[in-house]
């Protein structure tokens, strides 16, 4: 990873080349998009938003040219690339000036909210739109004899109901994952250990916890917001999950615990994802009220470090 980060920082040409190649590769290997966005974020964090923006524009035009030559259509690729890169450019710019992961994550949450709103602006009923888009997928499941024909419509309805929120939650998780990667690269090159200390202290403000409670009340029928409250709740769940992950790292770091505990947490995230994500999100939400890391530090005394 150090070699990759060093290559990005070698110059604008190298940054554009790497961002473009990884973005095109993500069409076959989706995780590559995280590395592509991290490259844009790294140059923005280190060299400023102007430098980062030129990398975004040149990389977008390069992707458009490659897509046109290869497939004869550039619009979908450039649209996806610019959405991905402009979002991470915004997050990196916010982090550069605020020097706060918590403030930056609130900005990214706002972007996620815009993703939900945009789905409503495209049509009055995003569920109906997704139901139509999922039709070929559910049909393929029937043809593969994985789902009975009698249950196909029910499956499509359930999936379409949750996809708008899942798209927004996945969006902010990808942006934050790319930003974390870029910040880690930056610390690796210029400030060893800096990202670890910064990530261990990630903590969202209590006002966001109050907003979360209000959204949960809306979900229970206090106000008729329909599925919109469900989608916002999924967005907030993703944010509290990240805080819960930071809490786990921070607490284990303060306790000097064996790294096997972190391996176990990530193991559960892979093999028991819904339950592990929910548990970490609940821990992160509780941390907004009780600030467990400060309480642990006070208990251990001022001489303890993370």
Automatic annotation (TrEMBL):
<dbReference type="Pfam" id="PF09991">
    <property type="entry name" value="DUF2232"/>
</dbReference>
<feature type="transmembrane region" description="Helical">
    <location>
        <begin position="162"/>
        <end position="185"/>
    </location>
</feature>
<keyword id="KW-0472">Membrane</keyword>
<feature type="transmembrane region" description="Helical">
    <location>
        <begin position="51"/>
        <end position="70"/>
    </location>
</feature>
<protein>
    <recommendedName>
        <fullName>DUF2232 domain-containing protein</fullName>
    </recommendedName>
</protein>
<feature type="transmembrane region" description="Helical">
    <location>
        <begin position="264"/>
        <end position="290"/>
    </location>
</feature>
<dbReference type="InterPro" id="IPR018710">
    <property type="entry name" value="DUF2232"/>
</dbReference>
<feature type="transmembrane region" description="Helical">
    <location>
        <begin position="205"/>
        <end position="225"/>
    </location>
</feature>
<feature type="transmembrane region" description="Helical">
    <location>
        <begin position="232"/>
        <end position="252"/>
    </location>
</feature>
<keyword id="KW-0812">Transmembrane</keyword>
<keyword id="KW-1133">Transmembrane helix</keyword>
<feature type="transmembrane region" description="Helical">
    <location>
        <begin position="77"/>
        <end position="95"/>
    </location>
</feature>
<feature type="transmembrane region" description="Helical">
    <location>
        <begin position="101"/>
        <end position="121"/>
    </location>
</feature>
């Amino acid at each position: 990873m150090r070699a990759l980060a060093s290559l990005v920082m070698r110059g604008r040409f190298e940054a554009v080349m790497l961002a473009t190649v990884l973005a095109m590769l993500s069409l076959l290997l989706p995780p590559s998009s995280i590395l592509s966005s991290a490259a844009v974020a790294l140059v923005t964090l280190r060299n400023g938003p102007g430098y980062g923006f030129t990398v975004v524009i040149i990389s977008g035009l390069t992707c458009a040219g490659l897509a046109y030559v290869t497939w004869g259509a550039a619009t979908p690729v450039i649209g996806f690339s610019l959405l991905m890169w402009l979002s991470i450019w915004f997050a990196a710019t916010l982090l550069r000036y605020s020097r706060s992961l918590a403030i930056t994550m609130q900005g990214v949450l706002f972007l996620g909210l815009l993703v939900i709103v945009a789905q409503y602006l495209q049509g009055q009923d995003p569920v109906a739109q997704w139901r139509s888009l999922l039709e070929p997928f559910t049909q393929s499941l029937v043809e593969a004899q994985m789902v009975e024909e009698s249950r196909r419509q029910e499956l499509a309805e359930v999936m379409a109901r949750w996809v708008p929120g899942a798209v927004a939650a996945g969006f902010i998780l990808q942006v934050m994952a790319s930003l974390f990667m870029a910040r880690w690269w930056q610390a690796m090159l210029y400030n060893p250990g800096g990202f670890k200390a910064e990530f261990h202290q990630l903590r969202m403000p209590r006002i966001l916890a109050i907003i979360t409670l209000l959204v949960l009340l809306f979900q229970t029928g206090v106000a008729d917001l329909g599925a919109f409250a469900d989608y916002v709740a999924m967005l907030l769940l993703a944010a509290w999950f990240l805080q819960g992950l930071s809490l786990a790292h921070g607490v284990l770091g303060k306790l000097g615990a064996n790294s096997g505990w972190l391996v176990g947490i990530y193991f559960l995230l892979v093999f028991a994802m819904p339950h592990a994500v929910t548990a970490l999100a609940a821990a992160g939400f509780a941390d907004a009220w009780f600030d467990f890391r400060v309480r642990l530090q006070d208990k251990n005394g001022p001489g303890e470090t993370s």
